[in-house]
């Protein structure tokens, strides 16, 4: 099957990024890789910039010359199958092995994220105790070592918000239910809410709480979601298309069609307008934290 440009740009861009990183890790110039694969150098460039879809067998060949581990090769071959999908509901357990988190790659590449959460604190703002409690529920029977590894990865992701160069701009709306649901216990929640207050004071983070008193709003229909936007290139165009992400129990939704993104942008604006302003949100966070402290 020839290369094509149909399908979602999300998996194509992600596959290209991973393949480029593998080649660079192997310290293999584009010309050498092209010669090994008996391809042209422009073809390698088109693949690495996500301009074309790929056959899984081509990905296997690339991974072989780059010295990629078997599990990663399997993951990227699965991702290659998604590059031809016109729209995709990505279930990690079906095509891509557990532990290969496509969203993490998108998150690292993003320049800004707007997120609505109805039930839990977003991963980028979780304390270690809160993260451990969430992972324990999501993965019953997880070993202590694996739990610590999961939490460590989640905490390491948060450096996106505090890095010196181009920190991620994070705009987040939380349902009041997130504050009221005691995850991990009262003391853990007190520390989590205090952490939210602290993080909300950073210049690149804007946090608002949607109070119960706000009544109905679009977030009740959409459920939790994030809108990721990416840096601009030298011509002022996004390096990747804006992408909507929604985390599901059995699969994860990625949308990048302009009409779909616009709908979620409209929903987020409605949610944002229904929320308290930043100062009132911090006061509510501190108030609920105090309630947990008092018992």
TrEMBL record:
GO MF, any single term? DNA binding
Lineage top rank: taxon: Bacteria
The family database entries (PROSITE patterns) matched by this protein are listed as:
HTH_CROC1
Q: Which Gene3D superfamilies match?
A: lambda repressor-like DNA-binding domains
Short name of one Pfam family for this protein? HTH_31
Residue ranges annotated for the HTH cro/C1-type domain, each copy included: 19-72
Spell out the protein name for this chain: XRE family transcriptional regulator
- What is the source species? Streptomyces triticirhizae
